[in-house]
Design brief:
The complex is a heterodimer. Chain A is mainly alpha-helical. Chain A has a single domain, classed as Orthogonal Bundle (MetI-like fold). Chain A is 77% helix and 1% strand. In chain A, strands 1-2 form a two-stranded antiparallel ribbon. The radius of gyration of chain A is 28 Å and the shape is flat. A six-stranded mixed beta sheet of chain B has the order 6-7-8-3-9-10, sandwiched between helices. In chain B, strands 2-1-4-5 form a four-stranded antiparallel beta sheet, with helices on one face. In chain B, strand 9 and strand 10 form a beta hairpin. In chain B, helix 6 packs across helix 7, helix 7 packs across helix 9 and helix 9 runs parallel beside helix 10. Chain B is globular. In chain B, 47% of the residues are buried. Classes of the chains: A mainly alpha, B alpha/beta. Chains A and B meet through helix 8 and helix 9 of A and helix 5, helix 6 and helix 9 of B.
Chain lengths: 296, 300
């Protein structure tokens, strides 16, 4: 009302023309958006380049023989021994690592303030950070040296040691994601603590725990250094004899790629393709599950 | 009730508009008065008694010396401003307060004359008799509607003497949800609407046949229509179970409760009981000025 009679200076009309500061902010915003996009693109490019290289080279050497025959000398055969070896070593390592990792993860998640849980968490982090070659040396020292032989058993233990902290850490994170309200609901129904943990909390987190295990499997399947130190010297099929060495895909790739034989190098590419496909299938399957769950 | 009316006249010679509104509100629900005078109600199970109950989180005392009776088969409303310890207090009634690390309860809480904090009493047992419904609906996310309701029966306690399916149907009917979900019992509970989820949580709590049902602001996350359904439900359930309900909604307390307890915070931020009485008395003629100010909306 007073405005009409106010004798003060007339306020300027609002202008929406960009100021210098606004224009500069917009330019910087655009530049950083592109920088982030380019960085993300680099990741996709690297993945694409590796996958393309392995697929192109691998497909050239992939044959029925690759899956059905052992290696004979330098010019003939396939990776049957390595495939069967990996199919034994990885599941057996998972059989050891999954229960230990899952239970430890649940313990850490369910007793978050305990001193023991804190120490366990520190130990898990540290174990996860130990280079796999050191774990290989460990298995070599405590199993291979006393038994006087390279063995699949030593490899399984080494791979399991690598997988345990991975499973434990992811399990802890996933179990922690179960909302406190779900625990409360269960306890308030008169469901005892242990039953709440087993039938409500773990059931709610089950899909995530399975994901954690699968990702650890993918990691364990590709570990090479511990195998070189624990499980070398056998290129024939070995089914079930854990006391002796057993070929496996990472070893097959490692040794054959270094040999002066076009055929064997090709076989190493094919093995790389199989291993890569295995890992990618696990990752994609896990991702598909996770996304499906989020949507639901 | 003549006593209450007399007091009402005496204290509020000139009732203001808000009070008249509340009084109207109470008049349309005659059930209040009938129940409070029912002599048989005292013999039914599910009566609780609090004697100097305090509750701590670490060194912080959230509830100080609350003594009150919760008569069986009635609706007791707990009202008061935020932070006055209502939710903490209600959680001491089924030993859910102690689930929080560092928490502690003092005083005595009796259920039908027995101390629920007695050294030989298993908290799991207490929680089966004193059920709870939370502020936000919290169905088990990976379980079906059926499994949610059956969870308490299947995962705890003695083997039920009736088929689980029968218990589930009965509980869903008691929670007024059966007709809406009977054709999709196998689908995920989280697909239901918020109001339906809350009634599902009520059904889940009822399935273990508690004598007391604690409701901690059960409608605060719900829209008015869903809220009305829960309120109808509370009125029906009070014939078969003792109900304690924490609410921020004064009209809700006036509509559904038989007795109302008003809590407030002191200088140390501890919640304490200011006044408890028949709901009509608390809203129309409270003894304390503080209660009067609160229920007439002068603060809080």
């Amino acid at each position: 009302m007073n405005r009409m009679t106010d004798t003060g200076p007339v306020p300027a009309r609002i202008s929406l023309e960009p100021t210098v500061a606004e224009a500069s902010r917009r330019r910087r915003d655009r530049a950083w958006t592109w920088a982030c996009f380019a960085a993300a693109g680099t990741i996709v490019f690297l993945l694409g380049a590796i996958v393309a290289m392995v697929v192109i080279n691998g497909l050239r050497s992939l044959s029925v023989q690759f899956f059905t025959e052992e290696m004979f000398g330098y010019e003939e055969g396939g990776a049957l021994a390595a495939i069967l070896g990996t199919l034994q070593i990885v599941p057996l390592a998972t059989l050891i690592a999954a229960p230990i990792g899952v239970l430890a993860g649940i313990y850490m998640a369910e007793t978050p303030d305990g001193r023991v849980a804190g120490l366990l968490r520190l130990a898990t982090e540290t174990l996860a950070g130990i280079p796999s070659v050191v774990i290989g040396i460990f298995a070599f020292t405590v199993i291979v040296v006393p038994t006087q032989t390279y063995s699949a058993f030593a490899a399984i233990v080494a791979i399991a040691v690598i997988m345990i902290p991975l499973v434990a850490r992811s399990t802890e994170e996933i179990v922690r994601l179960v909302p406190g309200s779900v625990r409360e609901a269960s306890l308030a129904l008169g469901i005892p603590q242990w039953r709440t943990t087993v039938s409500v909390v773990i059931r709610t987190a089950a899909a995530g725990i399975l994901t954690a295990i699968m990702l650890a499997v993918a990691r364990g399947a590709g570990e090479t250094a511990p195998l070189i130190l624990t499980n070398v010297g056998n290129q024939s099929v070995n089914v079930g004899d854990l006391g002796n060495a057993m070929d496996s895909l990472p070893l097959f790739i490692y040794f054959n790629s270094g040999l002066p034989s076009e055929f064997l190098i090709g076989q190493a590419w094919a093995a790389s393709l199989v291993l890569l496909a295995f890992v990618l299938v696990i990752n994609v399957a896990v991702r598909a599950r996770t996304i499906g769950r989020r949507a639901a | 009730m003549p006593e209450t009316t007399a007091r009402a006249k005496e204290v509020t010679a000139e009732p203001d508009l808000e009070e008249i509104e509340v009084r109207e509100l109470i008049r349309v629900i005659p059930a209040h008065h009938a129940r409070a005078n029912d002599p048989e109600a005292g013999d039914l199970p599910g009566a609780m008694n609090l004697d100097a109950v305090s509750a701590w989180y670490g060194a912080f005392r959230a509830v100080r010396d609350v003594s009150m009776a919760i008569p069986s088969r009635q609706v007791t409303a707990m009202i008061g401003p935020s932070g006055c310890g209502k939710s903490t207090l209600i959680r001491t009634l089924n030993r859910m307060h102690e689930v929080i690390p560092g928490s502690r309860v003092g005083g005595r809480v009796e259920l039908d004359g027995q101390d629920i904090y007695g050294s030989t009493v298993d908290p799991v047992r207490v929680r089966r008799v004193v059920g709870m419904v939370f502020q936000r609906p919290n169905p088990f996310p990976t379980m079906s509607i059926f499994d949610n309701v059956a969870a308490g029966v299947k995962l705890a306690g003695p083997r039920p003497d009736r088929p689980v399916a029968e218990i589930v149907e009965h509980s869903l009917r008691r929670a007024a949800l059966w007709d809406e979900v009977k054709d999709k019992l196998a689908s995920r509970a989280v697909a239901l609407s918020g109001g339906q989820q809350q009634r599902l949580c009520i059904a889940r709590a009822l399935a273990v046949e508690p004598e007391v049902l604690l409701m901690d602001e059960p409608c605060s996350a719900l829209d008015p229509i869903a809220t009305a359904k829960i309120e109808d439900l509370v009125r029906e359930l009070r014939d078969s179970v003792t109900i304690v309900i924490v609410t921020h909604n004064l009209q809700q307390a006036a509509r559904i409760s038989d007795q109302t307890a008003f809590f407030f915070v002191d200088e140390a931020r501890s919640g304490h009981l200011v006044e408890i009485g028949p709901t009509s008395a608390i809203f129309v003629a409270p003894r304390e000025q503080l209660t009067q100010d609160y229920v007439s909306g002068r603060f809080g």
